[in-house]
Design brief:
This protein is α/β, with parallel strands linked by helices. The protein has six helices and nine strands, in the order ββαβββαβαβαβαβα. The protein is 30% helix and 22% strand. The radius of gyration is 17 Å and the shape is globular. 29% of the residues are buried.
Amino acid sequence: MSLTAKNILIQKTARYFLIGKPSEKIKSALIVLHGYGQLAEDFIKYFEPIKNETTLIIAPEALNRFYIKGFSGKVGSTWMTKEDRENEIKDYVNYLDAVYDDVIKFGLLSKTKITVLGFSQGTVTACRWLSKGKSKVNRLILWGGGIPPDVDLETSNELFNSLQLTIVVGDKDEFILPEQIEKEELRLRKNNIKYSLLLFEGKHIIKKEILLKLFS
């Protein structure tokens, strides 16, 4: 007897968190995508230092939650795993488009400047979302990560050059070696993609001083 895998579409309740409220006062919106094992409610608190009356901060939460250790205690979430990866990617692209529509498209004025900041696993999530989804943004910040190999920079050249692309990396980042940064820069230059690189003293973390510098 042969084994067959089938996929079905279901409805699922997802959540996202806000600092601020969509209104005509909002001039800029920041969508922040957390890293592996994090929850949006905790992650969004890193961005409180840049909150003000004209900025809206939005933190979608990855669809897959799990216990960090064992079978109880602290809970985290992940955007995807290697299992059924293409459908996992498709699901979070559709989900992030839905968050965008819910907050940006219907809740804010069209002149609002929109920035996406991805941290760690959120960097590859951000890149896949913007290259495969329908949402339009003005600026992309990749913090502690880069553009995944499966995003074709040759065909996505126009997209990434339409963004103000910034890569942020700590000089003591436990997950990113100097040669990986060099490789990423070479790939970007080879595909004629404009970008800026911001190196800071620190590890694989969101650092307040750097955040303030990016949004000053």
